[in-house]
C-alpha cells in the first residue's frame, strides 16, 4: 500500500466537516483523482444505508452494543470497498471520522468500554489505523452551543441530542486516545475562526503528505 490515510476527528460541534469541505475545495484542483474524500459511517452504498439506520432519530430503541456493531459493520464495508482500493492506488485519503470515533462515542460515551469497542474494530479493520489523525479540539459546551445555533432540525441526529454528560464522556475518551497515541494525533484548536482552522489544517496535511504536493503549491 503506497497511499496515505488521514482521518478527521472531533467532538460534536467542532466544525471538522466544515473545515474538511474547505480544505478539499482548495486541494481538489491540484490533487484531482489523487485525493479521495470520504466519511464514516458511509462512503459507499451499503455503508450509507447503515448510516441512515444508526443516525435516524426515530430509532430510540437501539441498544448501545447494536449501535457499536453497526458502526463496525459500516466501517468494514467502507474499508474493503473504498479505503483499501484507494490506498493500493496510491491516493491521499481524507476521511471524516474512523475507528477513534467509535472508541470515543460508543466506548466512552455509551460506557460499554473503550477496549471492548477497540477490539471489535480491530476485527472489522484488520488493525488498519490512519497514518495520522487530525483532532479538532473544542470545549464540549462550545460545541453543543454551535449545534444549537447553526444546525436546523433536519441536520440534528440521534447523537446530537444526547446529554451534556454523554458528550463530556466522549471528549474524555478522545483525550485518552490522544494520550495513548501521541505519534498519530495532531490537535488543532477549533475555537479559532474557521479561516484560521482551515489554514492550520491545510498546513498540517501538507506536512503529513508532502509527497502529494508539488513545490509551487
UniProtKB/TrEMBL annotation:
Q: Name one GO cellular component term.
A: cytosol
Residue positions annotated to bind ATP are 10-17
Task: Kindly state which reaction or reactions the protein catalyses.
Answer: dTMP + ATP = dTDP + ADP
Entries under CDD domains matching the protein: TMPK
Q: What EC designation does it have?
A: 2.7.4.9
Whether Nucleotide-binding counts among this entry's keywords is: yes
Top EC class of this enzyme: transferase
Identification of the protein by name? Thymidylate kinase
> Which organism does this record belong to?
Lentilactobacillus farraginis DSM 18382 = JCM 14108
Gene that specifies this protein: tmk
